[in-house]
């Protein structure tokens, strides 16, 4: 693109499309195309720079100046842009691996009334990008731009959410702070989750004290989902009712009730917010995956969401389907960290759940994927959890624990990180710490898809702490939740034998073998950290399992 004169107010045209920077608007043949202002800003920068490759760093500095954002925000914008341009194959807005993005179209420049400027120079583009960003901010906060008020399901951000101020039902007016605190904490916690775009508190609180129809909120803010809730306090008991609503239609997608007794109120908002955020994110991923499955030509975001949702089912078949979806996602967008993390997780499930015939090869594949994600986005809120799992399977317990602690520091609601710390603590023989960590995971996500795994770690820690009766009780909960989970039957067999319930132990061992015929005590020993294999509690466990009928 030659450096011809351009006023910063002038439009940029390519094919049937035109970008109007002052209105943060994209049109096709004169008709508005629904597109978030941030995405318009990114497209405007690519158009002004075409055909040059624009680095991610440059995009961040021009479109989000002074703001810390993750790569996911940019990936969402690129996905929005491709959908708006009908660029399903990515030939118009191309990804240049490890470099950035490029618009391949021939761009024509309009004429403006201001002084002549060069759009190709980044120093000149900053003015235009700032105008676009300012328009974006104004549109989100005020909801005043005409095109922004249009129904815009296709333009709504993936996982875009607003948490409306919680309503106080009954109780004293002095308790109003509790409703506000929970709204604040939940907004903060959701904003830390991957793939989420959460409307800031200031905007959300403009709805305080009035009844807002979710469809009106959708029209004004362009969000895909609305979280509504109420708080009812009686003495030292606090009950929270909430629901997740699809904003465009007003249809309820999910609802729940949380009740806590005997908690200090200052701590309650953090506890409740963390639990709600975790549950909401799990549900949002499933809802987004279902929406993406209806898309005849899914993009990288659709495929990644489908992959994560399938992976979270923790079955062999779903894990294979998840990997296929995530491999397609990274093929479409090699710089999509969220998809690489999901891909790593499918290989880690092959290792941990014994799906793989070649454990070493699966672990290598997992590490390669997570290292790729780290190179792309080392601050991604999920990357350290998967890295820690790789390190644990490599028997580097100290490094694994540090990774899990970093994961919690970045996203305190990520229950699997507490679960894995419970595992690492138990692997060192610190069963008290293990029980504490796994109880945190269960409290944070009591309806988690991994709940049977959480219970199994608790049963395992109790068995290690020489409390076989309690271990047996928790192992029974595991197999009640997931009768197809081999390790649940293994722990039940060992615990039952140690309390003298030999018939139960033999039956549990037989079920474990039916699920996994290759299972032996030797294999279980090999899956244990090498330095811990001679621990007295483990030696007693191996003996109990052999006695119950597991082959040596």
Which key phrases capture this entry?
six-stranded mixed sheet; 552 residues; 55% helix; Arc Repressor Mutant, subunit A; Serine Threonine Protein Phosphatase 5, Tetratricopeptide repeat; OmpR/PhoB-type_DNA-bd; 14 strands; Rossmann fold; disordered N terminus; alpha+beta; repeat; 22 helices
Question: How are the SSEs placed, and which strands pair?
Answer:
Elements: E1 12-14, E2 17-20, E3 25-28, E4 31-33, H1 37-49, E5 54-55, H2 56-63, H3 71-84, E6 93-96, E7 100-103, E8 108-109, H4 122-142, E9 160-163, E10 167-169, H5 176-191, E11 197-198, H6 201-204, H7 214-221, E12 225-234, E13 237-246, E14 251-261, H8 265-293, H9 300-311, H10 316-332, H11 337-352, H12 359-376, H13 383-393, H14 397-410, H15 415-427, H16 431-444, H17 451-464, H18 468-481, H19 486-498, H20 502-515, H21 521-526, H22 536-548
Parallel strand pairs: 9-11, 9-12, 10-12
Antiparallel strand pairs: 1-2, 1-8, 2-3, 3-4, 5-7, 6-7, 12-13, 13-14
> Count of helical segments?
22
CATH topology call of the domain at 160-293: Rossmann fold
The average pLDDT score comes to 80
Measured by DSSP, the beta-strand proportion falls in 5-15%
How much helical structure, as a percent, in the residues?
A: 40-55%
**Which structural category do the helix and sheet elements fall into?**
alpha+beta
Overall CATH architecture of the domain at 160-293: 3-Layer(aba) Sandwich
Query: Strand tally, please?
Result: 14
Look at the structure and name the CATH superfamily of the domain at 160-293: ABC-type transport auxiliary lipoprotein component
CATH first level of the domain at 160-293: Alpha Beta
Overall body shape:
globular
Gap between N and C termini: 72 Å
* Biggest sheet character: 6 strands, mixed
In the predicted model, the low-confidence regions spanning at least 5 consecutive residues are 1-8, 112-156
Evaluate the radius of gyration: 26 Å
